[in-house]
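Service request form, structural biology core

Requester: graduate student, group of Dr. S.
Request type: structure prediction, single chain
Budget code: on file
Notes: please return the result as structure tokens.

Sequence provided:
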Amino acid sequence: MKAERNNWLWFGIIALLYFLWVLWLENYWFLTGIAIIFDWYITKTINWTFWRKREWGNSNLIEWIDAFIFAVVAVTLINIFLFQNYKIPTGSMEKTLMIGDHLYVSKVAYGPRLPNTPLSLPFTQHTMPLTTNVKSFVDWIELPYKRLRGFGNVRRDDAVVFNFPEGDTVAIEHSSVSYYSIVRDEAMGLKDYDINHLLPVKTDNEYKDMARDNVRKNYIIAIRPVDKRDNYIKRCVAIPGDTLQIINKKVYVNGIPQKSYPGIQYSYYIYMKENQDIPNKTFERMEVYEHFHRGNVIQAWLTREEVEKIAKFGSVQEIIPNDYYNQYFTDYFPHDTDYQWTLNNFGPLYIPKKGTSLEINLHNLCLYERIISCYEHNKLTVKDGIIYINNKPAREYTFKMDYYWMMGDNRERSLDSRFWGFVPEDHIVGKPRFIWLSLNKNKSFPANIRWGRMLKRV
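Core staff response, request fulfilled:
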């Protein structure tokens, strides 16, 4: 009788939790799962763990398999609905987040996103272990975007983990470089070749088509759904409905300057007095790892506080900002010579908000064409100077999703929205809450453990 009462107690607890989960999921077909829970604890008609006996007497191997299956299922559900670990691979967020920081990323902060590709190998992002181009998921089942309710929305100045927007197409041999930048560089090379050899010059679209064909011939190309694209982490500097502008390195949102963060850093030239230098050990103690010595000049990426500290060194003559990043390059969004923006002088640019309509024309189409054609899956063409969306002439467009503008705190060493544009809402993964482990890749164990960063809030 006692065992039977315990079974009913456990059934009640698990069934209640499962019912609350179904309410959160907002898919009431899953309520049929309560019948499975009832059979598991009460009727016991079906042996749902068919690999093991219900009675005692299972071998150690079976017990290990049972524990392994339970752990995989539990961790997978936790990663989907509650939180996930994330390791900082690059210095784009230094000094706020350092290379080697391991983060606790909350999925419930903005609401967990249900997987687009539910059939995939657990604990892999997009590629099978020990391979370079074998997919770890099947794409013949692909679900539409759905996000469950969370505790809030993405706000300005939040650090956010998201899927790389240009990660839909990847050249495997150069997976660290955007496929679209590879195509742009190839198109530019083809055009320069024709100009230098006095050959007829084609249109930019023709060069892009030729470049696309060349890239697909020379590289293995992978197509990835939203949830299988690489994870990035940046700071959200503008939210839907904002107008963003960068003037002389300072970010303005709706005409208001962004508040200053201690971790934001830029490139500087440190001019040393004759026969003077700053030892590498000094930079190491300050955790300044990006610095280059050229004669009596040191180029370093520093925060405002570090600039003030180094300026007081007796060996330093002066420190001046590096103006190299004020130059225009076609790599910068929107990759159009009509908008010769730079990393430090950019915009103004409207950040699209779901449900708002915007006039589109041949001048501003380059700003929003990827949203219209790629993220929101419309057929976009231009013929005889007229824009067609889904084969209909269009002078305005109504956005179906919210969009965000992300930038790294290491402002001149960050590949961010200034290169690849907007981040759609369906790419948002979660919010980093704290650093649970931090390892310095330049040191060996145990000196590589940054104890001061352990359990530090983000």
